[in-house]
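step 4 of 6: structure.
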Amino acid sequence: MTPSRRYNIEHKTTYTYSDDVGASYGRGYLRPRDLPWQRCLSHRVITRPSAADSSIGVDVYGNNDLYFHVTTSHRKLEVISQSLVEVRRPAIDAKAVSLPWERARPANAGDADAVDFVLPSPRVDVTDEVRRYAEVSFPPGRTIEAAIMDLTHRIFTDFTYKSGSTTVTTRVSDVLTDREGVCQDFAHLAVACLRSLGLAGRYVSGYLATTPPPGKARMVGVDASHAWAAIWMPGDTWLAFDPTNDQLADERYATVAWGRDYGDVPPLRGVIFTDAKTSEMEVAVDVEPLGMDTEADAAGNSLFDR
Amino acid sequence: MTGVAAPVFPAGDSIVTSYIQSERQLPVDDRAEPRFDEMVGQDRDIRPAWAELAAGLAEMGKPGLRRLRSQVERMLDNDGVTYIPIGGARTEPRPAGPAQRGDDEAAAVDVKPAPRERWRLDPVPLILDAPDWAELEAGLLQRATLLDLILTDIYGPRTLIRRGFIPPALIFGSDAYLRPAHGMRIPGSHQLFFYAADVFRTPEGAFTALGDRTQAPSGAGYAMADRRVVTRVSPEVFRRSAPHGLSGFFRTFRNALQSVAPRAAEDPRVVVLSPGTQSETAFDQAYVASMLGLPLVEAVDLTVREGRLWMRALGRYEPVDVVLRRVDAGYTDPLDLRSDSQLGVVGLLQAARRGSVTVVNTIGSGILENPGLLPYLPVLSEALLAEPLKLPSVSTFWCGEAVSLSHVLANFAEMVMRPTDGTGRSIIVGRLDAAEVADLRSRISAEPQRWVGQPFAPFSVAPVGTPEGLAARQVGQRLFAVADQSGYVAMPGGLGRVLPLDQQSERSHSMSEAKDIWVRSGQAALAGDRDSAPWLADTSALTSARSSATTSPRALEDLFWFGRYTERVEDLTRLLIATRDRIDEFRQRGAVPEADLVPVLLATVTHSSATYPGFVNGGVGVLPEMRSLVLDRYRMGTVAQSLAGLTEAANGVRDQLSGDTWLVLAGVDRALAELSRDQYDQGSMLQATHASILSGTLALSGLAAENMIRDHGWRLMDIGRRLERSLQLVSVLRWTLGRAQSPAVDSLLIESVLQFAESILTYRRRYRGRTQIGTVLELLLLDVGNPRSLAYQLQAMGADLKALPDASGTSLPERLLEEQVARVRRCNVTEFDQAGPEGERTDLLKFLGDTHEALSSLAEAIAAQHFWHPAKMRQLDRPIGQRRDRRPA
C-alpha cells in the first residue's frame, strides 16, 4: 500500500460585471471523484450572492456535476469550491501495460463503452497530421507503457508551455502547428493522438499539487486547475499520463472529472442575463498539502475498497 | 345514389379513363420501372376502395377538377395554412423590442418578413382500404414499440450496445446522442412519446418505412388542416367514401400528454414549445396547439426557478408540468446543450433531470432517427419483441460496417446516400456528375460511420389533380402514433406527400404537394350512416381550454402590436381615401385657389406614415407614390408593411385569435395582389383596393368587438389600437390644421380631416355645415361620445388599464393616462385657431406636440410594465468585452 496524501483544495472563481446581472445559472465540475485511489472527504461550494437553488448530480461518465442558480441581482459573483481529498498513487495494471498497444483498441477488445472515447469529439479533431505525429511513438507491437511514456515525453519536449498562448477555442491542429500551448492543449493533443490510432483517450480535469522551490514558502493561490490524459487498456482500466509534466499521474494528481474533452467537464460554465458591456473573470486555486495521512493508513485498507 | 360501393363509370372518355390509359406510359422519373398504382389494379380496374372517388372525379371532369383545385387554394389562404421553406427560415429569436416592431422611431429598420408560402394540397385524397390500413397500423405500432425499447436502453443501461446488437459508433458518433440526457426517464411506461414513420409502397405493393421521425415529428397539424380543407371542398360524391375522423387522435394525444405529467397533479399544465413564428413548420405547431387546446409558447415565455419550469403570465409565474417540444432537443437548453441556442430555456434539462417537468419527446430522442439503425431493426425486433419486423425498412447499408461500405461503393450509382445525423440532405448518386461523385466518395471514405446508402427505389403512384386532368405521381405518407398508457395509438390517416418529379428523398426541401390520407373503415359504404358523419367531428377543432392566466408577456405584446398595426392600416387607408377624393375633385375643377389643399394633404400622408421623403420634397409622381404606399411591403410605414407586421403578430398568437382572422387577411392579401398585377392602373383599381383594405380592417374590428373574450390579451390589443388611433389623429391634425391657410382651403381641409376621422356626418348635423377649427377640435379632441375622438381613446384605455390584473390605480401607465385625461379636459379649444405671424397655430401645435409626446411615454410605460424583454443572454465563462480568459494550465 503506497502512502496517501491529503490536500485541502480551494478553487475560487470571481466574475465582475460592469452592470447588474439579473440571474446566473451555473454548471460546474468541481467535486473530486471518489476512485479506488482517491477519496473526497469533504466538499462544499459557496456562491456569493448565495444561490437560490443548487444541487449536485452524476453525469453519464460518473462525474459529479454541480448546478446552481443565483437569482439575486449582482455585479460580482464568487464561486468558491472547497474540497478535502485523499490521494494515493494509482495502482497500475502491470499485465495490461505490457500488452502490445494494438490490443488496447476497444474495437479489438470488444469494449463498447470505451468506443465513446475513440471517436472524434467537438474539441478534438483527429487529422492526418495528428496521426503522423502519433505513429512515431506507436511502432507495431510496442507495449502500451513504452508507447505512452514515449508519447508523453515527446509532447513534453516538442512543445513549449506558454501561458496565454491559446484560448479555450484553440484547435488541436493549431497547437500542432504553433508547437506551444497550456496543459489543456497538451491533454487534447495526447487524446487526439490516441484516437488517431483507434485507441480510447480521455481528457482528465483536476488539480496538481506543486512543491515550492527549496527554501521558499508555499505561495497561496498561485496554483491552477490542471488537465491531463488517460488511455483505456484491456481489463477496463485506464492509465493516466501528464504530457505537460512528462510523467504518469501519481499521488500529486487529484482527479475531479473526465470526459471526451474539456467541453464535457469544464470547472465552471453557465448562462447569465445581463446588459453589462464588460466583465472580468479571475481564478485562484490553492492546493494545500496536509502531509502524509498516517491515520488513514492505520485505519487499514477499507477506506479505499470499492 | 345510395352508399353501395359499386364502381360507377360513365362510358367513354373521362379524366379517370385517360388516367388509366396514360398512366402506364407516363414517365415519372427517367427510369421506366414498374410501379404500384394506388388507384388502378393490375388489370386496369379501379380498386374497390377508390370506386366512389373515381366516380366522383369522372363526373366532375377537367373543369370540375380545376375548380376544386382553386377552391382548395382559396381555403388554404382563408385558413392561413402556410409553410416557410427551410432556406428562408431564421433561427434567431423573433424581433422583440418595440424598435423592431415598426415603431415610429425605427423607420430606418429594414424589416423583411420571411417568405411564408401557402401550403400546397392536392384535392384528390390518397385512399387506404381497411386491410391495407390494418397491416400498416400494426406495423407502425410495432415499430413504435420497438424504437421505444431501444431509446430506453440507449439512455439507460446500454445493454444493446454492450451486447453488440447496436454498433457503439452508431450511437456515440451521432450528434443526436445527447450525453447530458443520460439516465433521464419520463413517467409512464414509454420513453418514446410521439412517433412518425415515413412510409412508401414498393413496386410490389409492400409498405416500407423510409425512415423514422422521433425528434419532434411535424405534420400532424397539417394532416388535420388538410382534412378540414378537403372536407369542405369535396363534392357530395366523395363523401360516400368517408374516412375515419382524426379528432379522436388529438383527444388521445391530449390525454397522453397529461398522463406523463410528473406529479399526480390534478390538472397538469401542458404547453407546446415552439421555436417561433419563423420556424419552418410554425403553422403546424400552432395548429397542433389549438387542436390540443394548449398554449403555444416560446422559450422567452418560460423560465426555470427553484428547480422547476414556469411560464410567465402577467406579473406572476405559472408552473408548467409538461412540455410538448417542437424545438430540436440540442437547442432546448443553452446551459447544458448547445450554448449558442436562442431557442431554449436555461435550466430546462436540469428541471427535467430532477423530474419536476416532463419534456416530450424526451431530450435525446432524435437518436432514433439515425438511418444507420435501420439494418439492425429486424434482429432487434426478434430479440426484444420475439416477433419479425412487420413494417420493414427500406434496404439500408450503414457504411460504418466494412462490408456495407464496400457494397455501397461497389453499387454507388444506384444509391441514395443519407447522413446518419439527419441534418443534411439525401443525395441521389445517379444524379451527380463525375466530379460530385468523386467528392462524395472521398467524404464517405473519410467518415464512413456518418453515412448510409439506400438503393434507389421508386414509390407507388396515385392520381394527382393537375390543370390537365389526373396525373400519376409518386406518393409517400407520414403516419403518426402516440404513446398512450396502454400502448401506442395510431392516427387513422396521415400526411400524404406528392414527390416533386425529380425527388425521391423524403426530406426534400423543395416544397411538394400534400395529400389527405383517407383510411376507410371496414364498412366504408355505411360510414355515412354511422354516428352522423365523422366529418362533423373534424370540422370543429376541440375547444381550447385557454384562460387569461396563460397569456404570456410575449403573447400580450403580439396582441398589442396586432391592435396597433390594424389601426395603422386603417388610418393610413382612410387618409389615402380622403386625399384621393380631393385629388379627383380638383383634377376636374382645374386650377382654382382651393387646389392648394392637395399638397397639404399629400404632405400629411407622408408625415403621418413617416414614409419620407415621399410628398414632402415634391418630385414624386402622385399615382406611383400612392401605389407604393399601399403595395411596397419592404418600405417602412406602408399599408403592406403594416399588414406584414400585423400578420407576423397574428402568427405569434394564432392560438388566441378567431380562425376568421385569416379569412379576413387572405381577402386583403388578394386585393393587394390584384392591384400589384395591374401595372397600368390609372387609379380605379387603387380605389377598389383601398375599399377592400378598409373593409378588412373593419372586419378585424368586428372580430375584436364581437368574437373575443375580454381577457387581458384583448385589453392589450385594445390599448394598442386606441393608442395608435390617438397618435394618428394627433399627427393628421398637426399637419393639416397646424398652419392657417386661406379660409376656403382651411374649410376644405377641415372636411377632409372629418372624413379621415369618420366624423363628417355628425359634424354636419351638429354644427349645420359651418366649419370652424374650434368646433372641429371639440368633436375630435374633447367629445367623449365620439368613438374617434382623443378623449374617447383615453377613456377606453383607462378602462382597459383598470381591467388588467396588476392595476393599482397608481401604476405609471395609469398615472400618465390620468394626466392626459385632465389635460384634455382643461384645454380650451376655442383659442386654438389663433395663428401667429408666420401662420402657425401655436397653441394648437403645442397641445398636439405635448399630446404626442405624452402618448409615446404612455406606450413606453405600458411596454415596461406589461411586456418583458430579457436581458441579453451571455455565457458565464466567456468574459464580455475582452478576449482573454483563464483556464486550466
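step 5 of 6: annotate
 - Helices of chain A lie at 94-97, 106-109, 128-135, 144-158, 172-178, 183-196, 294-298.
 - Chain A touches chain B through 59 residues (CB under 8 Å).
step 6 of 6: archive
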